[in-house]
Amino acid sequence: MLNFTDRDLSLEDLETVLTVSECGQFTRAGEMLHRSQPAITRSVHAVERSLETALLDRTTRPTSPTPAGEDFRYEVRKGLYFIMRGFRKARCIGRRENSSLEIGHSTYLDPSIVAFLSNIAKMPNVGFSAVYHSSSSAEIVAKVRAGVWDCGIVVRPATTLDLEFMPILKEPLCVVMPSDHPLASKKAVQLKDLDNQRLILPARDRNVAFRSWFIERCQRSGVTPSIIQEVTHPHEGVLLAAEKIGLAITNQSTARTIRKSSTVLRRLSDDMVIEFSFVLRREARSQALAAYTRAVTMLRDRIASLERRKDSVPIPAQVASEGEQRTSAHRLRRA
């Protein structure tokens, strides 16, 4: 039985102490948990006050756990693991008992792809319904792992951890810039052209692995990127590029969909390509999720067929006609 004061603590408080203890920095823990530094400090103080002992040695750099903090970290981390496993199992059982799916997708995914998948789910007698959530790759991975969402489509490179993933399509990275920018005269932009340019990138915490990959590729080309703005949605990058704040790095379909008339789109050479992948947990799947996985597989095969014929990036008419969608639905019903 928990003491009265211990009951006031939340799982968020416990996770905060563990994160600070493991990464050694209050600021870094805030970035990882998407919380402000004052909130991190309050959680740590709340737990230490409840236990009436210090868990972190703040005189060291990086911050290290005290002897009590070492035992606390081990036992509580183990306890949180079993709590999360209980949540996940209960959610999975619930998913198997109904035909409703919760699906996350990157905000950078081509809207025509989302439309294709949404339309298949809406076809009569398919056997499942779906709710889509546009989000960051990091959040999608976290929520799929926790069982909050059934599956998702993320930008890779991404930290997919222990999830199963299926590549769907690849897209070139592009640069959006004002139409009067000196680089606008080029047909394609190389990484070395970005040296000393002000860049607008997706926010670091939306996909840490993608950011690391991009920075590494720049450095291999002798470029130290000057990042002056981070954005949480691709629309922001294009709008800021139109206002001449900097050059926005984004994928081709997104740039084409939302590009402003005062900007131009130039492809990044040097084989700068990102991949969209379907992710889901490695465990028994509900009938609804199995049917949806087959739909994604058909989408992947359709895109691969278009690419073999050297067609352009898929648009709704190319991805699947209305007749093809009816055929897809029929295949799903039979499967």
Short note summarizing the structure:
This protein has 335 residues and is α/β, with parallel strands linked by helices.
Describe the model:
It contains 12 helices and 12 strands. The protein has 335 residues and is α/β, with parallel strands linked by helices. The protein has 3 domains: 6-92, Winged helix-like DNA-binding domain superfamily/Winged helix DNA-binding domain (Arc Repressor Mutant, subunit A), CATH 1.10.10; 95-169 and 275-334, Periplasmic binding protein-like II (D-Maltodextrin-Binding Protein, domain 2); 171-273, D-Maltodextrin-Binding Protein, domain 2. Strands 3, 4, 5, 6, 7, 8, 9, 10, 11 and 12 form a 10-stranded mixed β-sheet that branches. The termini are far apart.
Uncertain spans? 311-318
Q: What CATH first level of the largest domain would be assigned?
A: Alpha Beta
The total domain count is 3
Which shape, going by the Cα principal axes?
Answer: flat
Number of strands: 12
Tell me the helix content: 40-55%
Strand content: 15-25%
The major beta sheet can be summarized as:
10 strands, mixed
Q: What is the CA-CA span between the terminal residues?
A: 50 Å
| Corresponding CATH superfamily of the largest domain | Periplasmic binding protein-like II
Level-2 CATH architecture of the largest domain: 3-Layer(aba) Sandwich
- Global mean pLDDT: 82
Computed over alpha carbons, the radius of gyration is 23 Å
Q: Tell me the structural class.
A: alpha/beta
Order of helices and strands: HHHEEHEHEHEEEEHEHEHEEHHH
CATH topology of the largest domain: D-Maltodextrin-Binding Protein, domain 2
Number of helices: 12
